[in-house]
Amino acid sequence: MIQKILLPFLALAGLTVGIYVAMSGSKTVTPAAPVSEAPHSPYPEFVAGAAIVEASTENISIGTNFPGIVSQLYVAVGSQVKAGDPLFLIDDRAAAAELALRQAAVKVAEAQLKDAADNLEFYEKIDKDSVTAEDVTKRRNTRLIAEAQLELARAQLKVASTEMERLTVRAPVGGQVLQLKVHPGEFAPTGVLATPLILLGATEPVHVRVDVDENDAWRIKSGAAATGFLRGNKNLKTAMRFVRFEPYVVPKKSLTGDSTERVDTRVLQVIYSFDRGSLPIYVGQQMDVFIDAPDRENLP
What we know:
The chain is of the alpha+beta class. It has helices at 2-25, 93-125, 133-166, and strands at residues 46-55, 60-62, 68-73, 80-81, 86-90, 168-170, 175-180, 187-188, 198-201, 206-213, 226-230, 237-245, 250-253, 262-274, 286-292. It has a six-stranded antiparallel β-barrel with strand order 1-10-14-12-11-15. A four-stranded antiparallel beta sheet has the order 2-9-7-4, with no helix packed on it. Strands 6-5-3-8 form a four-stranded antiparallel beta sheet. Helix 2 runs antiparallel to helix 3 (133-166). It contains three helices and 15 strands.
């Protein structure tokens, strides 16, 4: 008796739920509002391209000549440096000991040369009847050997001094420390690293690397005006100065930071620059760039 009442009730409940789900799924979903409105070109005819902000020297990955423990760090993230300024120091105690040894060797060689020169001078002043030509020649050769030993010691000192100097990693160009991934006490390896020890570059002015589809590359002329809009805020815009074309057309890369993500399109990279000033635009950000270009119909 209970089953006869329960089964029709469950069937009716299931039918009701199914109808409700079907009706809910058929409703039109209102699309989410965009985070920001897309920018519009200030030029009547233009070529658009995605771009990324980079240092005007390009982003330089700083490495080290010798692997070792970092003993001193001279900069911080955001530090402004000049070419030749020290960035960090690899533990130099062994190199310092070698340098001291070579300095002592030079002093010994200098003393030996002085002794050989004095000895030769003494023999050259003695009456020729009292010494043989062979004695004088032997002392002269001894002085020549001492001179050669001193020259060798000085060369070895120069090598030790150079090795000591190379343990201090210095800025190759003037610029700003964009990224710092090494700290005192950490081991700094050599070679090409996935994450550089220090990322350095000049940021006044900054450069913008614009990817232009190869189908539109022929429309852009050297010196063409351009305007860039910061991705995510169309109100942050700036006029840009033409710098150069990268002469090699490359496969387009996704601007997600992963260099292995590629599509089939090839792009011409056009470099523009602008003075950042007070604009909150940073190296590594993306921009939408519009480049003034003649109408297709007016081109040869």
